[in-house]
Every structure is written in structure tokens, then in C-alpha cells.
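From the thread on structure requests for the teaching lab: each student submitted one protein with a one-line request. Submission from student K.M.:

"Model 4'-phosphopantetheinyl transferase EntD from Williamsia limnetica, C-alpha cells only."
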Amino acid sequence: MIEKLLPSGVAVAESFGEMPDVAPLAAEAGLIARAVDKRRKEFVTTRNCAREALGQLGIDPVPIMRGEKGEPLWPRQVVGSLTHCDGYRAAIAGYAMQVRSLGMDAEPHGPLPEGVLEHVSVEPERHVLATRGDDLHWDRLLFCAKEATYKAWFPLTKRWLGFEDAHITFERTEEFAGTFRTELLVDGTTVDGGDPLLGFDGRWLIDSGLVIAVIAL
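Reply posted by the TA:
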């Protein structure tokens, strides 16, 4: 479903349900030793999607461990992103020589709970969203794009990025698809010595009851 949002060379693996016959690799078991059953199942399925994506790149199955901030730790010279929500798990991965960073998020296509929009947006975003039609849930799309932005940001900076630290604008190119632009409102210095980040360009899609936002830098 999300392949159309990504450039060539980025591998995609998706699941619209759990994979009951799949187990975590031994090294990963400790990450979910105390997890409830629901969390354990989504972890195992999403990690399996990650290994399927890596397999498309010619990489043998490896544990996908967790960093200090909860981020997935990919093999050396690989960048990737994971997402999971009710009824959907996915992973994308690519070689760092082809893509600098990846960020992806999926959410149910429904309105945000009351009061949440004010905490995940800046005033110019709320002003624009108030002028949009009600044929899709723009507030949920905004939240999804902010999450994708953070996932693309963190591997390059190793710093937190708050909802208030990015201003996102949307373009609608099809009935339920389009692009978005993230303007960063904080210093974008990276840890790899590359060009400082000024923003991200992403793409979004609404399909099968889901909102999906993807960034490939």
C-alpha cells in the first residue's frame, strides 16, 4: 500500500494482522519480557516486517534492538522506520548511501480525541486546518505527519523534537493523497556532519481506513 509513496531502492514490508507463528529473535526477547500480550504481538509482527524489508535488501535476519530513546537500531549503513496501529504494521528500510533518513507513521483515519490537536500543533497549522473540508480528518493527518517527521529527524540529530518545533503544510494532489512540507523551527545541526536540516518533504495517503505519512530524505 505504501510503496507508491517511496522512491525506488526503499524496501517495504506490511502486515494487516498479526503473525501468530512468528517469534522474536533471542536477543529481542528481553525487550518484551514484561509486555502485555497485545504489545508483544505487535512488537513481534513489526520486527518481522523489518526483517522482511531487510531481506529485500539482501541482508540476513538480525535482531532489531532498541536505543536509549526507544528508537529501532538498524544494521550498519541501513536506515529505516517502523510503525504500528490497530490492524496494521509496517517497516521500510534502505541503504544509507541511497537515502539519508526515513520516517513513517500510520494512524487510524478518524478524528483526534478532543483537546489533542491543541497539544500537537502550532497556531498557523490550526488556522489552516480550520479552513479545510471535512471529507477527511486533517487533524489526524497532521499528527501522523508530525510523527513521521520525528522519526526522520531523530537518527540524524539524536535530539528530541517537540510537536511545537515543526510547522507542517499540506498539498492535496489526489482525492485521498498528497504531499506535505515540514519546516523545522529549531536548529537542525546533525551528528553526522552533514548539511543542517531545514525541513522535510513527505507524502501522505489515506487508504483502507488508515492515514499514512512517509518521509524519505
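TA comment: The first strand starts at residue 11 and ends at 15. Residues 2-216 form one domain.
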